[in-house]
Design a protein that fits this description.
Chain lengths: ~350, ~280, ~270
């Protein structure tokens, strides 16, 4: 097990930068996820840690060693690939033992380890099968077992659940997380699925255009997003554009098309009268409540433009002054106003986040 | 990640090139010298051999015969092969893989043995002639050896399996959903075939047909075994000119003509398919 | 239903047409044989006699054909794999042109290959004072020349579909370059190599024109033997041998399909 340190890592292709300076410190035993849309540089970053891609600039440290120029086979990392990359000509047992054979482990030792790992990933008795005879989920487990057969110092996973259907995916998320905790292997995980990232990670690095937009625990990123991109990529959120006009009682005051609103938390120091964006999650919005007398509530009036029933909740779109659209989530049991009804929407200033405008 | 994979390629490439250049240059060079028969060549460069091929009716008719027979084989192979490839490609029964295996297996049996079987089948007292005579369809045995018809049939055995396999691959790349969509739009089955399957497989058909044509132009075995010295296609003529008459320069000239034909066919095929694909891109 | 019956009939006719000569050869080989066995189909009474009386020179011709084809397939595989690796993995400019160079021998009619190698061998044989014409290695080299493109084509095809993640997986599992090649790359492309080698075997085994030029006295391949016997002294034992070859070809195909699947063989670009 080891820490990983990425120091101003860059990868340029001709004039475009796939990764434009990523600096990250990953703790021993941590589960860190690189989250972002396709093309954001997350897979390139992962492959630079593995050693498949040489960085254009910057260093990669594993533990106390600078491994930037080392080939993959000497880095003592391992990887679970998106398509698993199981060797089609080898059995499950031979796949898992592949790295042990390279390390000249004795035959009996290999057999013992394979049996132990198959027990761990809940596939005992599958030694003699070939990868083509396994289901997607089973192949995934074998790929994981192969990657940890000789415990690597760092485990890399590149969208390992991307090919599975939703139900299996959720089960495997829990299982992978359980195994990772149990073994305590430092893990770097790549995904574009924010729910998966939230469910599994100790910390998430939200990536966009080759940079880390925000690094933090899932809670921090969800509750206190640092940028519009991070706020929009993780969960759904309402944005209200405006202009910061002042600061009083620990609150920022923002002039928007829908009136004057307040935000308790701000991502950056905001100078007077700069364009800003307010962000608030739909589940914090309520209908028809009286404004807080202490001014700890924001309030906007509007008409219900659309509503959809989603089982456990109802989603409303409320159109307010200045063509502002607000997404409101109500619990399914709550009273549901008809389309076109005039409503007033309110939410606590404590749940309102002030972001610098892009 | 800087493996020098290309180094691996040089030994086989150099061997292949040495054999290619060595054999072809020595041989084709001979075509530019006068043919003094019994394997001897004149000492001055001359185009007289080419002039002879271009002016002598004997050689011209051999060339024409080769082209004509090859074209016939293409037509017959297409008529038999294309529907077969289509049916096989769209077949969903357990028979499909079996038939495909049978097709490949029969294609892999050497043509020499197939020709042997054909000769037996068409021999004067053979099954086919006995039945034809008995049915009164003919009053004298149909002969295969030494006839153009026989050579065409023999060449078909050389090409058909191969042609079906090529077009099978082509039809498989046309999504079945396109046909279903056309049917839902109200087209009857044969119209679907004509308006969807045929146009989409046209580049494949043209390439395969030209491959077959090319194969036939250079085919020796069927033509020699069935032609029995009476049907002199270009490849047979080359063999006889060299082996029986020992006229190397003339043989080389004929070979050069044959190679040029092959080259021309390849060029046409590249241009035709390129054009078709370009046209399709404009439509799309 | 109509369409199904129609297509079934069509397939029966076409496949009947294609297999007919093979059935005739096999059937006639069990016939008693009249003045010539060729006319005894369907056979009037069944006999094994031709299988028991295959003359030595025919066995010799068959043995020569098989050993030639084996040598050709082996050599083509040994040269074709590095060639294909160089074409696909070597990042040289003009790789397409190099691939086309490897395919060039397919464009030369076999007769022309035969005559031109005959002349090449005369000249080279004079220089090195070894008779190449009528020799095993001379003929094997000519067959290698026409068979190599098939192996190169089939291995290139499978390398192009090769999943590079497999090699990366081997690398992070601690395997070095050579070990990765030996334990992962080579076994995964083996079906393509095998398919190409089967092609090479068949190309050599079926060849008549090249062997016709390069054969010598007492050095005759099986197709040449059939060619000669059709015109001179046809013996029914030839049918028996041919039947054995048909059976052998079918067995090879079954093995190929079992081990690597037909689709691999179809994708090999044997079309050239």
């Amino acid at each position: 097990m080891a820490t990983v340190r990425l120091d101003a890592l860059e990868k340029r292709y001709d004039t475009t930068a796939a990764v434009a300076g990523v600096t990250l410190d990953i703790a021993d035993g941590e589960f860190l996820t690189l989250l972002g849309p396709s093309g954001c540089g997350k897979t390139t970053t992962l492959r630079m840690i593995a050693g498949f891609i040489a960085p254009s600039a910057g260093r990669v440290w594993i533990g106390a060693n600078d491994v930037t120029t080392q080939p993959p086979q000497h880095r003592d990392v391992n990887m679970v690939f998106q398509d698993y990359a199981l060797f089609p000509h080898l059995t499950v047992a031979e796949n898992i033992a592949f790295g042990l054979v390279e390390r000249r482990a004795p035959r009996a030792e290999r057999a013992r380890r394979v049996a132990e790992l198959l027990e761990l990933v809940r596939l005992p008795g599958h030694e003699a099968r070939y990868p083509s005879e396994l289901s997607g989920g089973q192949q995934q487990r074998v790929a994981f077992a192969r990657a940890i057969a000789h415990p690597p110092r760092v485990l890399l996973m590149d969208e390992p659940l991307g090919a599975l259907d939703l139900k299996l995916r959720e089960a495997m998320q829990e299982e992978l997380r359980r195994l990772q905790r149990q073994l305590g292997i430092t893990t770097v995980y790549v995904t574009h699925d924010q729910v998966e990232a939230m469910r599994m990670s100790d910390r998430i690095a939200v990536m966009n255009q080759g940079r880390v937009e925000q690094l933090g625990t899932p809670e921090a990123i969800y509750e206190r997003p640092a940028t519009e991109f991070a706020a929009g990529f993780v969960g759904s959120i309402n944005f209200l554009k405006g202009r910061c006009v002042g600061h009083e009682d620990g609150c920022y005051i923002v002039e928007t098309a829908a009136g004057r609103l307040r935000a308790d938390t701000g991502a950056a120091r905001i100078a007077g009268a700069t364009p800003v964006t307010l962000a608030v999650r739909p589940e914090h919005l309520r209908l028809d409540t009286a404004a807080g007398a202490d001014g700890r509530e924001n309030r906007v009036d509007g008409q219900v433009a659309a509503s959809s029933f989603l089982g456990n909740l109802v989603q409303l779109v409320v159109r307010a002054a200045g063509d502002l659209e607000l997404r409101v989530e109500l619990r399914a049991g709550d009273r549901r106003p008809p389309d076109g009804a005039t409503v007033s929407v309110s939410w606590p200033t404590a749940k309102t986040v002030l972001l610098p405008s892009r | 990640m800087t493996a020098r994979w290309h180094l691996l390629m040089w030994p086989p490439l150099l061997l292949s090139l040495a054999l290619l250049v060595g054999s072809q240059s020595i041989f084709l060079r001979g075509s530019f010298f006068a043919d003094l028969r019994v394997g001897r060549l004149g000492s001055e460069l001359t185009l007289q051999n080419y002039w002879r091929v271009a002016s002598d009716g004997f050689y011209l008719s051999a060339l024409w015969l080769t082209v004509r027979l090859s074209a016939l084989v293409v037509v017959f192979t297409f008529v038999l092969g294309y529907p077969t490839a289509y049916i096989l490609a769209r077949m969903r029964s357990v028979w499909a893989p079996l038939l495909l295996a049978l097709l490949v297996a029969t294609s892999f049996v050497t043509i020499v043995i197939k020709v042997l079987g054909l000769v037996i089948l068409f021999s004067p007292g053979g099954l086919l002639n006995v039945s034809l005579l008995w049915l009164g369809l003919t009053d004298q045995p149909v002969s295969l050896r030494g006839t153009e018809f026989g050579v065409v049939v023999g060449l078909m055995y050389f090409t058909i399996g191969f042609f079906v396999l090529l077009l099978y691959g082509v039809v498989r790349t046309i999504p079945r959903s396109l046909e279903q969509a056309a049917q839902l739009l109200g087209a009857p089955r044969w119209r679907v075939f004509w308006r969807v399957v045929v146009p989409l497989s046209l580049p494949g058909i043209i390439t395969s047909a030209l491959v077959v044509f090319n194969l036939c132009m250079g085919a020796f075995t069927s033509a020699a075994l069935i032609g029995a010295g009476r049907i002199l296609t270009l490849p047979v003529l080359i063999q006889r000119t060299v082996m029986l008459d020992a006229r190397y320069a003339m043989g080389a000239t004929l070979a050069a003509v044959l190679l040029l034909c092959g080259l021309a066919i390849n060029l046409i095929s590249i241009l035709a398919v390129g054009r078709l694909k370009a046209a399709r891109r404009v439509v799309a | 239903m109509m369409a199904r019956a129609l297509s079934g009939t069509w397939l029966a006719l076409v496949f009947g047409f294609m297999i007919a000569p093979l059935v005739v050869v096999a059937g006639a080989s069990f016939g008693r044989g009249g003045r010539t066995a060729m006319i005894d189909f369907p056979p009037h009474e069944l006999t094994w006699q031709w299988y028991l009386a295959i003359p030595g020179d025919q066995v010799q011709a068959l043995a020569l054909s098989i050993s030639l084809a084996l040598a050709c397939a082996l050599a083509a595989a040994l040269l074709g794999v590095p060639a294909a690796l160089g074409i696909v993995r070597g990042d040289l400019p003009g790789r397409r042109a190099i691939a086309a160079l490897f395919r060039l021998p397919l464009q030369i009619p076999a007769v022309v290959v035969g005559v031109s190698f005959l002349q090449l061998y005369y000249i080279v044989g004079d220089v090195i004072e070894l008779p190449l014409v009528g020799s095993f290695w001379g003929l094997a080299l000519a067959h290698l020349f026409i068979a190599l493109p098939y192996v190169v084509g089939s291995v290139v095809a499978i390398l192009n579909r090769f999943n590079m993640r497999l090699e990366e997986a081997a690398l992070v599992l601690g395997a070095g370059r050579w070990s990765t090649f030996r334990r992962v790359t080579l076994p995964v492309i083996m079906p393509g190599v095998f398919a190409g080698a089967v092609y090479a075997f068949m190309v050599s085994f079926s060849d008549l024109p090249v062997a016709l030029f390069l054969a010598g006295q007492g050095f005759v391949t099986f197709p040449v033997a059939i060619f000669q016997s059709l015109d001179y002294d046809f013996s029914p034992s030839m049918l028996a041998l041919s039947t054995l070859i048909i059976v052998f070809s079918f067995v090879v195909m079954v093995v190929v399909q079992r081990s690597i699947g037909l689709t691999n063989l179809l994708h090999t670009g044997g079309a050239g």
